[in-house]
């Protein structure tokens, strides 16, 4: 998120840039709300490309300066975003890549033009099959 935010600040300084996290592991949202790095409960999930119990100390100064916030979404919303990406766009994204879409669809990114960075297709096939079958792995 910080790399994308750095580029956006250079190209379009007035754009809002958000990170996305899942509600099972959202230390950035807690840290931004508190104004300092926070430790949070972490529950492993199929969204394994984002989330931890804390923000890396080296990242906190950058994240707190560059990001306008962190949008937190649930696992069901991420699973639905994965299904939508596959069914409508033929894009297979891992949970971390689908989280921004989940946030945008839920209206968490505000109104107006919204851009989602959908990255990472590293999702286990068995997990993808469950998600496409309307389950949460």
Task: Please explain how this structure is put together.
The chain has 137 residues and is mainly α. It has one domain: Rossmann fold (3-Layer(aba) Sandwich), CATH 3.40.50. Helix content is 43%, strand content 7%. Helix 4 packs across helix 5. It starts with a helix and ends in a 5-residue tail after the last helix. The relative contact order is 0.17. The model has no long low-confidence stretch (mean pLDDT 96).
Question: How would you concisely characterize the structure shown here?
Answer:
This protein has 137 residues and is mainly alpha-helical.
Shape: globular
Biggest pleated-sheet summary = 2 strands, parallel
Radius of gyration: 15 Å
Computed structural class: mainly alpha
Overall number of structural domains: 1
Strand and helix order: HEHHEHHH
CATH class: Alpha Beta
Low-confidence stretches: none
CATH topology group: Rossmann fold
> Overall pLDDT, averaged?
96
Show the helix and strand layout:
Blueprint: H1 2-11, E1 18-22, H2 27-34, H3 60-66, E2 69-73, H4 75-89, H5 95-105, H6 125-132
Parallel strand pairs: 1-2
Helix pairs in contact: 4-5
């Amino acid at each position: 998120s910080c790399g994308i935010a750095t580029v956006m600040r250079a190209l379009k300084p007035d754009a809002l840039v958000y990170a996305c996290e899942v509600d099972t592991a959202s230390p950035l949202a807690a840290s931004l709300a508190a104004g300092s790095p926070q430790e949070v409960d972490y529950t492993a999930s199929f969204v394994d490309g984002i989330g931890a119990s804390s923000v890396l100390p080296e990242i906190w100064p950058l994240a707190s300066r560059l990001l306008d916030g962190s949008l937190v979404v649930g696992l069901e919303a991420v699973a639905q975003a994965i299904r939508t990406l596959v069914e409508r766009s033929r894009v297979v994204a891992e949970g971390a890549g689908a989280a921004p879409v989940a946030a945008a669809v839920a209206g968490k990114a505000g109104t107006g033009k919204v851009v989602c960075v959908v990255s990472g297709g590293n999702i286990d096939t068995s997990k993808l099959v469950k998600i496409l079958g309307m389950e949460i792995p």
